[in-house]
Amino acid sequence: MKKTHTRHFETAPAAVSRRAAIQTGAALAAGVFAPAVVRAQQKTLVITQYGGVYETHFRKAVITPFEQMSGAKVIVKYGAPPEWLTSAIVNKDDPEIDVCILNLPTAMRAITTEDVFLDLPPERVPNALELDPLFYDLYNRKAVGFNHGPWGMGYRTDKITPPPTSWRDLWNPKYAGKVLLPDITSGGAYEMIVIAAMLNGGSESNLEPGFTALKELKPRVLRFFKNNNEPIPMLTSGEATICAWYSARIYPLKDSGVPVEFFAPKEGAAVGTLSYHVAKKSRQLDLALQFTNFSLSRKPQEDFANSMEFGPTNKFAKLTGRAAQRVPSHSSLLRIDWRVLAPQLPKMAERWQREIVS
Questions:
Q1: Which of 18, 19, 68, 159 lies 20 to 30 Å from 357 when distance is taken between CA atoms?
Q2: Could you tell me the maximum CA-CA distance found in the chain, to the nearest angstrom?
Q3: pTM above 0.70, yes or no
Q4: How does pLDDT run across 170-204, given as a tens digit for each residue?
């Protein structure tokens, strides 16, 4: 059954009587108006967004400049990626969301869902050709990556010398009882399985060495954190000294005075990527494609990446200031093939719960 939603679409204006016009004016003055009338005056585009500091930087770098350039209004829908994908599927014939911005692994479900999202070849999104292939070909050109958050390692600089350099350092016995790793609910657990597999001769299609290595590491782990707030007090106090975590979480701790450092391991840093998925039957399809193409252009990519200190997906975007020091280069990224992982995710999550954290 199709969901009922509140989005109103642009309709052609009809001739009205003088009395109706007066009534409409009175309604507008009272703050009650017909949305169709407003949309006839200004096109609107509905996108998803994550809120908080991310949205603050995104509005400044992308939404506001696009609105000024296009004359359109961008409306933000909050929530969570699985919820947005469900909405896109249920309402695929009359979408309430024009552009879904999804994370991994939700994006992998999106690109394998038939007849919901538009394919995005360069003919539709020319700036996609400026992307590192990791953020385009990964989605089989059915979506485009907007930014990436590096996921690597952090450590207490006052507790660990010499500095660690490799993912293998998590298994070093001298850090036993001081290691923090993500649980499946906090982001990074799937990547950790793949990384552990790769360190031991496995791959995305051969994860058994990863589970074996993580079971060996399990007794030395202080905590498998269930959300991204849990590591903060343990790293701050020094109870934990080494971890696998996002740069965007470690650097704020450093900036607050905690002696911690983030680094991309020599094998490569994994990435948390957000991608654009355009509704195939959007009533604002041209506008949705224009917004997507604009977001991939060099200036919004640079403005967002440098203010948020996240990685751009446009390979020509230049990082400056602290972002240039803190964001790993594309050449140092670990290129996990989520297309291979996607069918395995339910079983991976089940094995993680049963064999690693139980």
A1: 159
A2: 83
A3: yes
A4: 999 999 999 999 999 888 999 999 999 999 999 99
